[in-house]
Amino acid sequence: MSLASVRADFAARQLDLTIIELETSTATVALAAQAHGVEPGRIAKTLAFRLADERVILLVARGDARIDNGKFKSRFGRGRMLDAQQVEALTGHPVGGVCPFGLATPLPVYLDDSLQDFHEVLPAAGAIHSAVRLSPTLLAEITGGEWVDVCQPATTSQPA
Predict the structure, then answer these.
(1) What CA–CA distances, in Å, run from 132 to 65, 100, 119, 154?
(2) Domain boundary assignment for the chain
(3) Which of 8, 32, 105, 111 is 20 to 30 Å from 142 by CA-CA measure?
(4) What is the number of alpha carbons within 13 Å of residue 107 lying toward its C-beta?
(5) What is the pTM of this model?
(6) pLDDT digits (tens, 9 = 90+) for 134-144
(7) What is 2-148's CATH number?
């Protein structure tokens, strides 16, 4: 169902993006990086948070990024990550396949500046064995995402 919702979303918006489907699981950053032959930073992980005012947001960041609690709190206030059941209920995607496309519930999308370290990133596409390759700029355009700086700086420099 979730992969189907991403396909339907892309079709409805006439997006010419190829959904990559693999036989192996890409449910974690490490598995996805290995399966796609890229460094973990290029995997665009999508995290769901419930803020203190009860709004739910999606945050997309480079795969090896860690949330900087001070930056997050400064930008959004207090927030907590949703559990797997809540994530699937709100997004329609299973954990490991969560992405900002084809959402069951419209949610605001924020993109961490860390994604701009690369010319191409790979977010999931609604299933634990799927992804799409696209530029961070196109990701922002497609999702209507707002750029934010809420992650710790990368510890190693990665080539774009």
Answers:
(1) 19, 11, 14, 23
(2) 2-148
(3) 32
(4) 30
(5) 0.93
(6) 999 999 999 99
(7) 3.90.960.10
